[in-house]
Write a structure and sequence with these properties.
The chain is α+β, with helices and mostly antiparallel strands and 129 residues long. It contains two helices and four strands, in the order αββββα. A hairpin with a 2-residue loop joins β3 and β4 (103-112).
């Protein structure tokens, strides 16, 4: 005589453990991805802010004023303006370094000799009062 075991409903322990392992792997992957993309977002925000600030500084420089090195108010941006000889005779390069923490951007713009001489005079003596 055969004894029939009633069909049991539900999942076995092995099936539950496999499902938990798959879910844990998915959660870990999502968390790493989220962290990575938040870091990218922070970096892009810095690049945008620094680039916009650099454009404003280049506008000031093109108007004939050269700001002293310093910090941007209400921000952690530090900047430095350098005037260097350019690749050709009579051409100079304005180099603007903007940094925040360990991130730095460097922007360069070429200018002519007359504008460079005027900027060098301002940088050495300060802006006219």
């Amino acid at each position: 005589m055969k004894i029939k075991v009633p069909f049991s409903e539900g999942f076995t322990l092995l099936e539950v453990l496999i499902a938990v392992a798959i879910l844990a792997g998915a959660v870990v992957t999502i968390l790493f991805s989220l962290n990575y993309h938040l870091d990218l977002l922070q970096r892009q925000a810095f690049l945008t802010e620094a680039t916009e600030f650099a454009k404003e500084l280049f506008e000031e420089i093109s108007e004939g004023t050269i700001p002293p090195d310093g910090e941007v108010p209400d921000s952690n941006l530090h900047y430095r303006v350098l005037l260097q000889e350019g690749p050709l005779t009579g051409i100079y390069m304005v180099v603007l370094e903007v940094e925040k923490g360990s991130d730095t951007i460097i922007m360069k713009r070429l200018i002519g000799r007359k504008q460079a001489e005027r900027l060098m005079k301002i940088k050495d003596t300060g802006p006219p009062q």
